[in-house]
Amino acid sequence: MADQKRTTCPYCGVGCGVLVTKQEDGSVQIKGDPDHPANFGKLCSKGSALGETLGLENRLLEPKIEGQTVKMDEALNVVAQRFKETAEKYGPDSVAFYVSGQLLSEDYYVANKLIKGFIGTANIDTNSRLCMSSSVVGHKRAFGSDTVPQTYEDLEKADLVVLVGSNLAWCHPVLFQRLKAAQKERGTKVVVIDPRRTATCEIADLHLAVKPGYDVLLFNGLLNYLAQNGAQDSVYVDNHIEGCEQAVAMAAEQASDYQVLARQCDIALADLMTFYDWFLKTEKTLSMYSQGVNQSSQGSDKVNSILNCHLYTGRIGKEGCGPLSVTGQPNAMGGREVGGLANMLAAHMDFTPEAISRVKTFWDSPTIAGKPGHKAVDMFEAVHKGEIKAIWIMATNPAVSLPDANRVRKALETCEFVVVSDCVQNTDTMAYANVVLPAATWGERNGTVTNTERCISRQHSFKELPGEALPDWKIITRVAQKMGFEKAFSYETSYDVFAEHVALSAYENEGTRDFDLSSWQGLSREEFDAIEPIKWPINNNPKDRFFADGKFYTASGKANMLAVDLKAPKHTPTAKYPYVLNTGRIRDQWHTMTRSGLSPRLSSHLHEPYLDIHPDTALKEGLKKQDLVKVESKWGEAILRVKTCDTVKPGELFMPMHWNDENSAHAVVGRLVNPVTDPFSGQPESKHTPVNVSKFQPDWHGLLFSREKIETSGFVYWTRSRSNGCYVYDLAGLGEPSNWDEYASFLLGEGELLSMEDKKRKHHRYAVIKDNVPSGVLITSENQGNIPTRNWIAGLFDQSEVSMEERISLLSAKPVGDVAEKGAIVCSCFNIGLFQIQRAIADEGKVSVEAIGQHLKAGTNCGSCQSEIKDIIAQATTTSGDKKQVA
Ligand SMILES: Nc1nc2c(c(=O)[nH]1)N[C@H]1C(S)=C(S)[C@@H](COP(=O)(O)OP(=O)(O)OC[C@H]3O[C@@H](n4cnc5c(=O)[nH]c(N)nc54)[C@H](O)[C@@H]3O)O[C@H]1N2
Ligand SMILES: Nc1nc2c(c(=O)[nH]1)N[C@H]1C(S)=C(S)[C@@H](COP(=O)(O)OP(=O)(O)OC[C@H]3O[C@@H](n4cnc5c(=O)[nH]c(N)nc54)[C@H](O)[C@@H]3O)O[C@H]1N2
Ligand code: SF4
Ligand SMILES: [Mo]
């Protein structure tokens, strides 16, 4: 019987159950867990490719101090000593932890306890600040607690699903599949509110391409419409809501002329009224929202403007009916539960005098933070000012993901002591570390995570810890012990931490706090290992949903509706920076690509950093598809490939967030993004930065394939992606090398060098053959249009030998015979490319997603690519005009 483990996917907040089976050759087979209530056996492209990311390539295996490998104990001594000394000398607020929604709850718990209860500062914040903090504020202002009232089952029970600022198809693909199936089954109406026409719009009955930042106005208009049409649930409002009159009055004042409102929101009046009407008439309405709502200078108000409409109609906490904030990271929820945010204490308790003394007593700690600490952006500002002198960064890459990343990098450069715990060797952030600590990662860690619907699942390890790597909770525990806190940090396994976390949730709770795991008190280690996925609260009053009963966690026990007023983004387009830059995710990469970037499959979907730009804007700026473009904001710049498409409006641009200095020359999103934050949540405005664009004209373009990573300092533009058997580099240079042959030899390394030059057309082509296979290929041209497609060349690196004809093909840059190029991979499960799908449409007449599926299998496994296939069919079957591309 094969060795099988149940665990949970380490990527998004859907929190899918995964079955891992060890194969005889040492590899593992990954499958969806049919019994997990999040995914019932399904996985998306990223989850399915987890097996490809488990190798030791690029793993950090040993600790380092100032770049020198040391023993773990020595590294931990230095960390403990420096944090202790700094706190003693300059006060506790001179140190900070910056942590992550990708830690397990147990890791998070220990970090929070050490810094708040023993070092005595609340300077611990998490990348969830950039992700969920506006939702936390919205929830707390409305409900008195950070409670997600709904469950995934509501996707199947709703008659109307409103997706606000969520590209569910790419970012929460398994939930998207559930919604799509429900739509097929019961005809659920779907409304997408997003400035871009994303892949999610595949299933939209209505797409409202709202003006970026204008959601509050849109939802105030809805509240006004509901009020005008008698949709108030008077019993619920009278008994359980405060602030209703003021909220409705504000909505009426601001949003009563729908014609004006539609114009302000840049939406057709008829579409706006259709949405309002559907919402009015559909009791079972589920509003799901994500980063288009949260990542805004008005993120908290956006959240409350949505919650207002649900509270007003009493549509909350019922089957198929309520607001659902979709979380990003696998354990962003767990972080909120333990107190990973600087403004929350622990176990959903705030910094009230009673809670402070309760937690201090529970921890039996010598000190405790008495007030909230710095939120992420401010934290790095305090580092910049020299107020924070020692910072420990765990499981996040702020040099890429924080706004105004150039300033963040400066802050880290000047900081006296920077510790980074990560599982990989090179991240942009690590370049600034004095000490790096090797952390365990998925497959090696044990503990719990909480997903979007409050469901706690186990992550189980199925691999040995490599090198000196240790789980994060253990690293923190050992540092705490070395700081002199042995008694309070005597944990031997993550079970010990979990048991304490459970006990704190129950401590003096008696129903006063939503987060309560009291029924798990006394759970044995074996029972902990056997925990089945389950939604909290886990007490003697279990419930699937919250608030239908009108009981809230505010002092009065009533919910608050908030009068919220539209505030346009602080930085709006100017003559110098005329366009709005929106940023976000692509289907097959995870954040800064440290793990998903290892998978050739995932890298082949979109292999190069790019800018989505409307054809009209491109024309105005003299840009064409495939050009390189320089994008500049007041804060920084990037050089990206142009993708013209009508999924963004004229004047609006989109750039993915994933690339960084490790895999490209100038594509760090954070360098461009403005550091404005929401005044209540501190969440950055990552989706709205004024920028300008200009064509970037290099002297030559190139494509390079190599089995080893190459030296990239000579290129003005480069980006690297993974393929089977080689790395693929897109390149561009300023100035020709004085000797191309020598340059090619330097880049491609030793072996038999084949070459071809066309002086007139400025083509250079080189192939290095070693042991009968290519070990490097370089193709350059003055013109990007002459650069060949990549997959057939990469394919030769995966062969055991190449023929004479194939060698020659490398020099002619044309495949042998009719080796049909696949094109960019659309279906990563079955490795089916764009050109293959286009041929199936043109030559075989396959003009539906189903027909393509039958013919090529594309889209028949995880389904993540079905919306793209639909779009490719639409493009192929429309005769002219600018081609569409799915965003
Ligand atoms: N493939 C993949 N999936 C992921 C991740 C990943 O890295 N890769 N990361 C995970 C994480 S941590 C997160 S937080 C989630 C994020 O999941 P999502 O929030 O769904 O993803 P984003 O692409 O960040 O942004 C969502 C949408 O907000 C829109 N938007 C921008 N401005 C506005 C506005 O003013 N109003 C409205 N209504 N919409 C606007 C953008 O156009 C974008 O399509 O994804 C999770 N899942
Ligand atoms: N412009 C722009 N910026 C954004 C966003 C956006 O939409 N636009 N989105 C924001 C959001 S929502 C998020 S969540 C952030 C994400 O941004 P980050 O958190 O910076 O991105 P990740 O690449 O997920 O970083 C996680 C790091 O942890 C490491 N790691 C993985 N597993 C472990 C482990 O078990 N232990 C340790 N110690 N390390 C581990 C990984 O190798 C990686 O280096 O980006 C934010 N920044
Ligand atoms: S939807 Fe995909 S990335 Fe998210 S948890 Fe499930 S398998 Fe993982
Ligand atoms: Mo996130």
From TrEMBL:
Domain of life of the source = Bacteria
Q: What is its EC number?
A: 1.7.99.4
4Fe-4S keyword on record: yes
According to its UniProt entry, one GO biological process term is: cellular respiration
Q: Does the keyword 4Fe-4S apply?
A: yes
GO cellular component terms, A-Z: membrane; oxidoreductase complex
- SUPFAM superfamilies from the xrefs? ADC-like, Formate dehydrogenase/DMSO reductase, domains 1-3
What enzyme category does the UniProt record give? oxidoreductase
- Residue span, 4Fe-4S Mo/W bis-MGD-type domain: 2-58
Which CDD domains does the UniProt entry name for this protein? MopB_CT_Nitrate-R-NapA-like (cd02791), MopB_Nitrate-R-NapA-like (cd02754)
Name the UniProt key words of this record, in alphabetical order.
4Fe-4S, Iron, Iron-sulfur, Metal-binding, Molybdenum, Nitrate assimilation, Oxidoreductase
* Cofactor(s) needed by this chain: Mo-bis(molybdopterin guanine dinucleotide); [4Fe-4S] cluster
What Pfam families does its record include?
Fer2_BFD, Molybdop_Fe4S4, Molybdopterin, Molydop_binding
Family assignment from sequence similarity: Belongs to the prokaryotic molybdopterin-containing oxidoreductase family. NasA/NapA/NarB subfamily.
Name of the protein this chain belongs to: Nitrate reductase
Provenance organism: Candidatus Terasakiella magnetica
Lineage of producing organism: Bacteria, Pseudomonadati, Pseudomonadota, Alphaproteobacteria, Rhodospirillales
